[in-house]
Amino acid sequence: MKITISPYEPEDILSVKRFNQRLNDANEHYLFPENNISKKFPKTQNPKLYQEYFLAKDDEGEVRGGYSFINQEFNINNQLFEVSFLKLPLSEGIINKKYINTGALIIEDVQKRKELIFALGMGGFENPLPKMLKRIGWPMYTVPFYFYIINQNKFLNEFEYLKVLKKSFLKNLILTIIKYVGGLYFLKMLIFLYTTCYRMLNFKKFNNIKIEVFEEFSSFADELWVQNKNYYSFSAKRDSEALNILYPKEMSKFSKLKIIKNGTCIGWVVLIITKMEHDKFFGNLRLATIVDAFSKPIYSDIVIYESVKYCIKNNADLIVSNNSNINWGKQYFNNGFIKGPSNFILALSKKFKRLFNNQVDFENSFIMRGDGDGPINL
Questions:
Q1: Residue range 211-221: average pLDDT?
Q2: Distances from the Cα of 371 to the Cαs of 112, 143, 376, in angstroms?
Q3: CA-CA distance, 50 to 71, in Å (whole number)?
Q4: Phi/psi at 254 (nearest 5 deg)?
Q5: By the 8 A CB rule, do 347 and 130 touch?
Q6: Does an H or E element contain 15, and which?
Q7: Strand 318-322 and strand 286-295: pairing?
Q8: Are 120 and 349 in contact (CB under 8 A)?
Q9: Are strands 4-7 and 234-236 parallel, antiparallel or unpaired?
Q10: pLDDT tier, 314 (very low <50, low <70, confident <90, very high otherwise)
Q11: Angle of CA points 334, 340, 343, to nearest 5°
Q12: Cβ–Cβ contacts within 10 Å for residue 289, how many?
């Protein structure tokens, strides 16, 4: 049976619905959008930030898989390029062996259509998509994960990863000691002393800081982007037009902070604070996520510090963030964050790496949770 891949057209919607029904009947979690025009990223809204869909169809025109690109401008080594985020490659082969080769055909088509492609997130190297991308030679990187414990008792009781560790007698013993002998409290005190000393040694830097909560990005974001974009080797364009599409004012779940020093905006941050319910990672914690941010690298410690203050004030139990930049990583540490195991994976297409002759410096890139899919599960 021949599979052909073509753009998603209005006449394909009914077939997509049948495809989704077959996936749903097989208890598959992922479904394909049942509209050929993206609601969040239509090309009519911004021709530089838009989503497009492609479908894999059999001889009879029945949909057997599909994928999409979110196309966006990136600053790479001081030049702007259109880069495509590979989203939702989905094949009926996961439920029907008759279409087992559809996934490989989709990835082959992906590589033919675009040069600069990345995949992000993917839940860890052990999952099917990163395994396939690694097998065909896409370079892969782990985007570091950082967490800040505010409520230590809730953290120990609710953080689901710790419950998995308790299956081991030795690890259960260690966790019991931490919980009842005050090991975590002692660790928090050490972190507090370190971060306090850090701010005292840099007291001039942390003086005269003001925070403004805002709803919509404006010229301040444009100025920050133009002034600071070239400090980073690889970053999505973070001007006001793109940011207002990614984090629209209508979505009240986003908290947006402008950081001002001596009357000048030096950075911004986007946060989400969510009361989780039986989450497989975070249990019932009140979770704060630093979704996105931007500043000159030298001010990243102030941006992170003010984010922590805001999350504490708003009764978060735990703060988490992903950030690929090594200099920002040091400032997470200076503000009391702990580096944990990450399942947030960045994969770059082979043509991507060839085009830049391996000169894209991952450690100086700027990838956060808001890139790619964005904070879809928060």
A1: 97
A2: 23, 11, 11
A3: 5
A4: -85, 125
A5: yes
A6: helix 13-25
A7: parallel
A8: no
A9: unpaired
A10: very high
A11: 130
A12: 24
- Give the C-alpha separation, 158 to 135, whole Å: 37
Helices (H), 209-346: 219-228, 240-246, 300-313, 326-334
Q: What is the pLDDT of residue 307?
A: 97
For residue 23, the tally of other CB atoms under 10 A from its CB is 18
Q: Which helix (H) or strand (E) holds 161?
A: helix 160-165
Structure tokens at 122: 């993917």
How far is residue 334's CA from residue 196's CA, in Å, rounded to a whole number?
9
**Token pair of 353 as six digits:** 């790496």
Measured between alpha carbons, how far is 252 from 137 in angstroms, rounded to an integer? 41
- The per-residue pLDDT for 30 is 87
- Whether 352 shows a pLDDT value over 70: the answer reads yes
Label residue 189 exposed, middle or buried (CB < 10 Å: 0-12, 13-18, 19+): exposed
Domains of the chain: 4-114 (3.40.630.30), 145-340 (3.40.630.30)
Question: What average pLDDT does the structure give for the chain?
Answer: 90
Q: Using only the alpha carbons of the chain, give its radius of gyration.
A: 22
Taking the C-alpha atoms of residue 284 and residue 287, their distance in angstroms, rounded to an integer, is 9
Q: Which residue has the tokens 């013993």?
A: 173
Strand ranges, E, within 215-350: 234-236, 254-261, 264-275, 286-295, 318-322, 338-340, 345-348
Residues 121 and 378 sit within 8 Å (Cβ to Cβ): no
Euclidean distance between CA atoms 375 and 117, whole angstroms? 20
Kindly report the pTM of this predicted structure: 0.91
Rounded Cα distance between 94 and 179, Å, is 42
Q: Which residues pair with 273 in a beta bridge?
A: 288
Residue 331 token pair: 């400032």
